[in-house]
Amino acid sequence: MSFVSVRNVWQRYGDRSILERVSVSVDEGEFISIVGASGCGKSTFLRMLLAEERPYKGEISIDGGDTAVEPNRERGVVFQKYSVFPHMTVRDNLIAGESFEQPFGRLRGAARTEAAARADAMLERIGLNHVADQFPAALSGGMQQRLAIGQAMTARPRILLLDEPFGALDPGTRLQMHDFLMELRDETNMTVFMVTHDLQEGFKLGDRVLVFDKPRWDPDDPGLFGATITYDFDARNKGMPYQDILDQYPSLAGA
Amino acid sequence: MRLINHKPGRPGALLLAALPFVVLFVAYAVASDIRLTANPQDKLLPAPSTILDTAHRLFTEPDRRSKEILLWNDTFASLARLLGGVGISAALSLVLGLAIGLLPYARSLLSSFVAVISMVPPLALLPILFIVFGLGELSKVVLIVIGITPFMTRDLAQRVMEIPKEQIVKAQTLGASTSVIALRVALPQILPRLISNMRLSLGSAWLFLIAAEAVASNVGLGYRIFLVRRYLAMDVILTYVIWITLLAFVIDWALKTTSRRAFPWMEAGL
Known about the structure:
The structure holds two protein chains of two kinds. Chain A folds into two domains: 4-84 and 141-254, Rossmann fold (3-Layer(aba) Sandwich), CATH 3.40.50.300; 88-134, no CATH class. Chain A has seven helices and nine strands; from the N terminus they run E-E-E-H-E-E-H-H-H-E-H-E-H-E-E-H. Chain A has helices at 42-49, 90-99, 109-125, 141-154, 171-188, 199-205, 245-248, and strands at residues 4-13, 16-26, 31-36, 57-62, 75-78, 159-163, 191-195, 208-213, 228-234. In chain A, a hairpin with a 2-residue loop joins strand 1 (4-13) and strand 2. In chain A, helix 2 packs across helix 3 (109-125) and helix 2 (90-99) packs parallel to helix 4. The mean pLDDT of chain A is 86. Chain B has helices spanning 10-38, 48-60, 70-102, 104-117, 126-133, 137-162, 165-173, 178-215, 221-228, 234-262, 264-268. The model of chain B has no long low-confidence stretch (mean pLDDT 90). By secondary structure, chain B is mostly helical. Chain B has one domain: Orthogonal Bundle (MetI-like fold), CATH 1.10.3720. The A-B interface holds A 50, 52, 70-73, 75-77, 79, 81-88, 96-97, 100-106, 134-138, 148, 151-152, 155, 157 and B 164, 166-167, 169-177, 179-180, 183-185, 188-189, 263-265, 268-269.
């Protein structure tokens, strides 16, 4: 049984079809890049994975669970911007990852000290320990996104959803963020879904690249049909297929 | 160079800031002098020196009958009403604003109601308030509350709705309940706005206070002004007006300073 399974999901806003017949199953630890033209429904798909929206039809389940009705701690998210809380210091933003599930959103006494220690360890890990007591507005775009990723990871989600996380960053910072994300992923073996506009980025980071597009098109009524997954590329081994087939079927080596 | 690109230096800016005050004072002094030369008994525009003497007397000399300094009594009575009214309004608008901004059910229930109530002219309700709440302190505080709460509520609700959706969703993915989102995400972000709302509504609050005191009261800054009006005691009225202006200015400054101290993250980005 696959870890995340999306079965025959449809989404529509009023008369407008956005997605139709979307089915995909993802194993634990896979990195899924989602690409497609603007307005093809890839962000809608991510919002449904996030449970910010419920599908019009179909099921989305994580580890065999039911389709969620609202966002919860199973899902971590990083948006292009506004992902961190501007009124909290960098350290408090990380502590929020643990304290927000408490009744008043605060940790006290020993629990707080421990959470602060873990936050400092995470700050070290994401390279922000020198700005721990500053507010996010004082940070550069790349630092804010690193903080947002760190914050999402602190809550230990089952899947991490990234909505064009590096879209607002300059190319140099973007490359650094790629390395950072790959390291973090190697350490945690997190299942990741990333929506991106950048094809190169999608293929570089992803194990699989899902392409959303409309297979059916009615020229008189563009809203009639929705988009679906039209390609599901295997992007491992630099996109060349069957590079590890001998590992899977050693008997082929002798042939 | 274009006019929009001319900027005054620091001494020039200070001088320009002082200029309107100086012009106002000189204009008053000249007008007062002209009238007093024509008629030394004129009461309409007392000389600045007369106002200064009156002010000194009002601030220091007790009333002959009650042995109390009336100006201070008036000040404390008025400030208690004003700050009470503004404080209650702030608390009410905070709770309502958070509810309307965060909860779709509260929004459906209350947002049109608050919008309509904010259109009711509060001073027109004054007679009703006096009948319902009596002539004591309560009716004056209620007038201020009715006058400024709807506007503050609408603005705070709007501000809560302007908090990026991403933040609210993010808080949910961190496991925050509705109350945690209200207390730890929305509330801290609208507190600065609450203070700026209080600063803005203090003007109307003073207006409502003085109106209520003028109609029915036995102590208060507005009461005193409308009492001595009968004797054409312009020196007393002007002293009170300047004193009220000063109080309003100090309260405004204190709120501004509080806001700057309490919310460093607001300016961290600048």
